C-alpha cells in the first residue's frame, strides 16, 4: 500500500490503523506499507526498510529504529 492513510482525517486514520493491525494479526498476511510517517510505521510495522535510488539500503526491526 502506498501512503494509504495520508489523506484521511485523524480519527479515520486512527480507526483504519487499528483495523489494518487487526487484519494482519488475524490473517498473518505480510503487508507492505509505504509511508513517510514514522509514527505510523511504528504503529503498523514490525520492520522498516530504507530505500535509496530504488534499492533497499537497510532493513531493521522497527523497535530498534524508534
Automatic annotation (TrEMBL):
<dbReference type="InterPro" id="IPR027417">
    <property type="entry name" value="P-loop_NTPase"/>
</dbReference>
<protein>
    <submittedName>
        <fullName>Iron(III) transport system ATP-binding protein/spermidine/putrescine transport system ATP-binding protein</fullName>
    </submittedName>
</protein>
<dbReference type="GO" id="GO:0005524">
    <property type="term" value="F:ATP binding"/>
</dbReference>
<keyword id="KW-0547">Nucleotide-binding</keyword>
<keyword id="KW-0067">ATP-binding</keyword>
<dbReference type="InterPro" id="IPR050093">
    <property type="entry name" value="ABC_SmlMolc_Importer"/>
</dbReference>
<keyword id="KW-0813">Transport</keyword>
Amino acid at each position: 500500500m502506498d501512503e494509504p492513510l495520508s489523506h484521511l482525517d485523524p480519527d479515520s486514520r486512527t480507526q483504519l490503523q487499528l483495523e489494518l493491525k487487526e487484519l494482519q494479526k488475524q490473517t498473518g498476511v505480510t503487508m507492505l506499507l509505504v509511508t513517510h510517517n514514522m509514527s505510523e510505521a511504528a504503529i503498523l510495522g514490525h520492520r522498516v526498510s530504507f530505500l535509496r535510488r530504488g534499492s533497499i539500503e537497510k532493513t531493521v526491526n522497527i523497535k530498534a529504529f524508534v
